[in-house]
Predict the 3D structure of the following.
Amino acid sequence: MKIVLTGSIGRINQTLVPQLTHNGHDVTVISHQSSRSGLIKVFRATPAIGRLDDEAFLTRTFRGADVVYLMLTGVLASDDIYAAAKQQAEIYAAAINAAGVKRVVNLSSVGADLGPEVGSLYMYHIIEQTLTSALTDVDLTFIRPTAMYYNLLNSVPTVRKSHRIYTNASLDVKNVWVAPVDVTPVIIKALTEPVTGKTVSYVASDEQTYLEVASALSQTLKMPDLRVSQVPDEVMQDNLVTAGMPIAFAREYVKTVAYQREHDFYADYRAHQPRLGTVKMADFAQVFAEDYHNQQVIKH
């Protein structure tokens, strides 16, 4: 199959691309950084260097593809993340239609079934709706991973400094986590085993509360006083901005977590309960520990 992927060589594509090319598929990877060309070629894929807001470039790159894989990138620094997400989805849709592509797989997110009340994840609702409305003659699969484990790596500095994870989430409510390597096989199936019409697939690896997350990290790091602390929304927003997150996105991200704290966020996930993947929180704790120790080495 001729497959075109957006997302450069990010966390998911690092495992997705080599598996697809190993299985004999003709893979083109879009990246806006020419420096990524070498690694893309190492994975035996063809680099296409250009901008995702360049409709003409996307149309040329998509033309002749059996399937195109779309993901959202580069909007988190926007003053209006929702307008930016809609604009990107509209550009994608226009290029898909102009290129005559009939099969699209979109990396969406848990929470895409909800409205503006869900904060930052509303971006994915906008994208799904925009693609669905514009691509009426295209088979669409939306992949909805849950919270990525690697987001927990943002807590490495506070764990190192004060042995604390800070969050505005409920500490004893189950959250659903996923590893990129568990997302990859779901994407491969969606790309290579087409399904007619519009379909939605959730992807998850483990279900753990923040208290259980702290326990797993405490054991792995051999840090018995490691704790997770719940902080008010405004404190969490200030912490995120101080750590470098754009203020507009920080505000909406905190809103997302607050919604999960106060509502049944995972209702649609449970209604379409996927088989959990192989990477559990205890496995990710090893990754967290490696990052923790690497940052110590860099600092010293």
The longest strand covers residues 139-145. DSSP finds twelve helices and twelve strands in the chain.
